[in-house]
């Protein structure tokens, strides 16, 4: 299941904006509904047809795979929003049919509708808050989650590993000689390279993999349901592809940027912080071996110079 923190900042902003538009549209619909009931006006046929909850703007967004991201629809609570929204429209249609038949709306009908409306608004508010929280955890430059999101994600995966439910690989990535890019072309060019490399890596990962910015030019890739051999193959492919992509930074000639990687796996009984440190040690070994390569951690690397003390 894809977590909501797999969404980019652009996807989160777009989803929040659309949810806000849907909420505003529903408020306008509610005003029209109340006017129809109070003044005994003919109802809008869409509100009493079959499946009226699919015809309003919220319903169109909710049920459209093209309009809302998969990671959002898989989130616990998203189904509850759909149920509350459908129930609210069902009760609204019941009241409209009563008035259309010349009958008075009973207090029981009205109370059911109001309770469903409040529940739907609560679910919308909860979903929006989750997206706002995820957006705050996203790195503003690259649009991928930062360290806080990384630890949360790794602990989720570690729990699955402890239950022997699946394997999970972790890779630490560092751009080679990135300081030289900043020194030669300026920090604006460096930021452009960071964003371009991030987008290239994110596009090359599988839907359930995730990229995090660890700090500076360092990133971490989390690969669920992946053996160490599969993880190394994925990372080595991405490394080779990245090296072949010219980065246009506004100079006479584009630059090519390479990256080094350290790969390890989550293991039962091993803290996620230790697994990150192991990936970091393998990354240092890859740097020491000449850069632009990926190495798997092994116990012989334990205690070697940490990546935080190496040169770019």
From TrEMBL:
What InterPro entries does the database record attribute to this sequence? Chemoreceptor_zinc-bind_dom, Diguanylate_Cyclase, GGDEF_dom, Nucleotide_cyclase, Rev_trsase/Diguanyl_cyclase
Class of this enzyme: transferase
A single GO BP term for this record reads: negative regulation of bacterial-type flagellum-dependent cell motility
This protein's source sits in the domain of life called Bacteria
> What is any one of the record's Gene Ontology cellular component terms?
plasma membrane
User: Which EC numbers does the record give?
Assistant: 2.7.7.65
Gene Ontology terms for molecular function: diguanylate cyclase activity
Q: Which SMART domains match?
A: GGDEF
Every GGDEF domain range: 166-299
Q: Which reaction does it catalyse?
A: 2 GTP = 3',3'-c-di-GMP + 2 diphosphate
| NCBIfam families registered for this protein in UniProt | GGDEF (TIGR00254), PRK09894.1 (NF007380)
Put simply, this protein is called diguanylate cyclase
Organism, per UniProt? Answer: Methyloceanibacter stevinii
